[in-house]
Give the backbone structure.
Amino acid sequence: MKRRKFFQTASYGIAGLTIAGSCTPSKNESNASGSDAGGNQPAREIPAYRKSIKSSFSGGNFKSANDTIVVALIGAGSWGTHLILQAVETDKNIRVKYICDVDDTRGGRAISELEQKQGFKPIRVRDMRKVYDDKEVDAVFIETPQHWHGLATIWACQAGKDVYVEKCISYNIFEGQQMIDAAMKYERIIQCGTQNRSAVEALTARDYIKSGELGDLVAVHIKEIVDGPVPFNEKKDTKAPDYIDWDMWLGPAPKAPYSISRNKSWGYYWDYAGGYVMSNGIIHQVDMARLVLDNPGFPKSVYCTGGRYFFDDNRDVPDYQMATLDFGKYVMTLETGECTPYMEKTSPEIRFGQGFPDWSQNATDILILGTKRMMHLGVMGGGWQVFDKGGKIVAQQSALFPLKPHLQNYFDCIRSRKQPNCNIVEGHKSATLVHLANMSYRVGCKQLIFSPESETILNHNVAQSMVSRDYRNGFEIPKSV
């Protein structure tokens, strides 16, 4: 295949700006990151949501363990189906009233299996707003494409529903801020779908690091180097089939003609996500790393480079990225790609059993370097091991896949009104690291200076404009939730 270090120019909808998708900046981008940017600094106001954060809620639907929780699934793809079936197995007092999807061909398996499990058939609907209008529904699972996560969550909070929202929880930084604001204003539980927050080994790894046995932290290297290559064959635009509400599928994203590629491979388009591997993959490792590092805030700067080195096709996103984030006391790197067939994710035998991955070829490894020792940490049941000189293992803990504990924590918090393990504040902080990496890449691989206090880019106007986006009429993220 032809090698190239660029991708198609991506139209970005804020203020009519067009963002070049190459790491070679255009003339306009060079100006935007130079003296022009320095003369028009963004306002350094503290985000409003910071003043509203609560550790628990006094209002809401307090329930005992024996009370039924009525839920709905919004987005009935393969993972959404798996999740809702796991949910009813996890807690015996869960009842699924709705299966919602804009595509009539999806959700059939969930409906049929749920009918057998709970003795009645869930109602199929296309429009999530019908679910939100039903006062009997206590909580929802939002399993849509990424561009819908923010608005669907805010609507749910406004309707008095608790939320389990899949990763990456937001499309941009502004959405995450507004999701927090909505959760706090309406006192709604939001559990983010990065389930390693409910893994016992994450807590023991955190305690080991806090004990000082690794020494002072030097660097944290996070990978999502999946077992590709994964080709992308873009299909032509066609008329939307009758069985899908394409306008509703697009929702907050720009108006676009239907194609099966946008519909089924949305992670390759900037309009709908930040990339399958970066925003839909490595976010698991990023969030777990933040937990074991005792939840650091935001970095001071980020630099991301990469490109399409393997695939010669029309995907928007790169097939390889490397980002460096400066946290002051240590550096964190994010490495993503999908053209490495020799890398493998942790096997099911380890995730649901015992043992540890081969860290040298583990696709989702978190490597933490200290001044004394180093730790390898796995996600979704990979466990952790600490190594000294000569490969000597000095500490370790195996682990199990943590999905059911994460679901149970969600249901427990719906009842108690306490904040869940992966609450929306921590979900936003983790998502912001991914957003910053993509923003740096999309403006020509520029180093971005970030203000942790105001959550703004201080040295690049074009990148700062990407903190939000233009939204279609009727699907806006409200400035006041």
